[in-house]
Task: inverse folding
């Protein structure tokens, strides 16, 4: 059993004295091997001792180890390197320490180049040896924690990378599940940074075209001529510099899914050409008269109100109805604040995995400050801020002092809070405070009572009084 299987909690940093690693010791000198094993067993590690490469081979093929300690020179001069090679092939994530003769630097370098964690010279200083093995076990543990963290975050919070469990986000996920199996065009709406591109990718991943191409293209900032070339392609000689035929994104995505982001920014003249392709499935390259048939699942997104743009004449109404076979609205973060703690944990987990370090803890006041902020940049802004806070905390506990100044206090926040409280009864305010704090703590009554500044008995009475379950 590896050290990760013995963890009581994935999110807690564990003392090395509590780590019981599985260690394989390979040495053709039994007395020397027993001394190493005894020194490590006193720390709680579980040691398996074998003599020589052939016996080590059986263990490496059939067993599971966190750390392998091998003598470099045994019955054959290269036996230690053979053990290292086999460990790299069959003991995924394990760390190998090589024991070498005094002054055998070339052999030690060869071991490091072969993927060894480190080497130690004979005669062994047992204190140095134990510390080296502990560091190796710790490095293995951190890798296992980060891999497990990725899996747990995805399993607990994510649907195709969409993080959250609020009613608003559950509605988005339900819509994705319903429309994905069909060929219905989908229009995804919502503010910038809300994750519209994740929704588009999820639709493809849940569709019957999942084994085909998914092609994303942003329409913003494109001139009409360049946009037409990008979408439909051209033939050689169509314009100056067109020295060869080139297919556009419609042809490139044929049989798969095409996602056009910021479709509201498309020039009005191009909208008519796009409508024709969507209605007929025929693509005409620049400089060519004949058309080519394409079959794509069409998904688009915008942060604009296309209905208003239709009324102002900036967007074709017939195209609007064509792309809006189904509409999925992705709410801004301020409309699903209960998802913010999950997103914070996701961001911290990603930071830990990227930096190969323990996941930094964060205090309740810091979380509450992040929850109360309106996040004009939505999820994209939140993830960037949390990772910036983690960097500033330098792997220590993240607290309110690490919250950026622009998030700590804003003029709009004070106005928003006062305006939203005016004319609301105290019982309603109390009930809403309890509901939101329960959502924030994932239903943890003890933590909810602590954050509200009341006793658990009082909270229990209020829950019964307000019918909150």
Result:
């Amino acid at each position: 059993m590896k050290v990760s299987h013995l963890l009581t909690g994935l999110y807690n940093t564990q003392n090395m004295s509590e780590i019981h690693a599985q260690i394989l010791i390979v040495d053709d000198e039994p007395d020397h091997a027993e001394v190493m094993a005894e020194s490590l067993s006193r720390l709680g590690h579980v040691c398996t001792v074998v003599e020589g490469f052939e016996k080590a081979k059986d263990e490496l093929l059939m067993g599971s180890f966190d750390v392998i300690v091998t003598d470099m020179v045994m019955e054959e001069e290269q036996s230690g390197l053979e053990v290292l090679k086999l460990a790299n092939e069959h003991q995924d994530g394990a760390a190998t320490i090589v024991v070498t003769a005094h002054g055998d630097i070339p052999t030690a370098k060869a071991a490091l180049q072969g993927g060894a964690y480190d080497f130690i010279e004979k005669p062994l200083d047992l204190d140095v040896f134990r510390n080296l093995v502990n560091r190796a076990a710790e490095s293995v543990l951190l890798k296992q924690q980060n891999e497990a963290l990725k899996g747990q975050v995805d399993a607990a919070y994510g649907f195709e990378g969409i993080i959250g469990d609020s009613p608003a986000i559950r509605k988005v996920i339900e819509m994705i599940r319903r429309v994905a199996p069909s060929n219905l065009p989908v229009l995804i709406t919502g503010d910038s940074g809300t994750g519209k591109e994740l929704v588009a990718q999820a639709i493809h991943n849940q569709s019957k075209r999942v084994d085909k191409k998914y092609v994303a293209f942003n329409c913003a900032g494109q001139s009409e001529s360049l946009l037409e070339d990008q979408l439909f392609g051209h033939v050689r000689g169509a314009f100056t510099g067109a020295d060869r035929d080139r297919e556009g994104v419609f042809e490139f995505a044929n049989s798969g899914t095409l996602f056009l982001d910021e479709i509201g920014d498309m020039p009005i003249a191009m909208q008519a050409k796009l409508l024709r392709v969507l209605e007929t499935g025929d693509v005409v390259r620049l400089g060519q008269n004949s058309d080519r048939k394409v079959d794509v699942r069409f998904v688009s997104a915008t942060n604009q109100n296309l209905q208003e743009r239709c009324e102002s004449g900036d967007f074709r109404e017939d195209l609007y109805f064509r792309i809006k076979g189904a509409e999925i609205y992705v709410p801004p973060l301020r409309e699903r604040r209960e998802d913010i703690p999950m997103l914070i944990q996701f961001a911290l987990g990603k930071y830990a995995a990227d930096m190969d370090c323990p996941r930094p803890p964060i205090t309740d006041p810091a979380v509450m400050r992040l929850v109360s902020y309106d996040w004009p940049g939505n999820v994209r802004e939140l993830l960037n801020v949390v990772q910036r806070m983690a960097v500033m905390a330098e792997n220590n506990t993240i607290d309110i002092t690490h919250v950026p100044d622009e998030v700590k206090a804003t003029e709009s926040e004070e106005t928003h809070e006062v305006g939203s409280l005016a004319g609301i009864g105290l019982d309603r305010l109390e009930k809403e405070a309890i509901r939101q704090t329960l959502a924030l703590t994932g239903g943890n009554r003890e933590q909810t009572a602590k954050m509200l500044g009341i006793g658990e008995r009082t909270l229990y009475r209020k829950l019964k009084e307000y019918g909150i379950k």
Summary: The chain has three domains: 3-154, 160-331, 335-466.
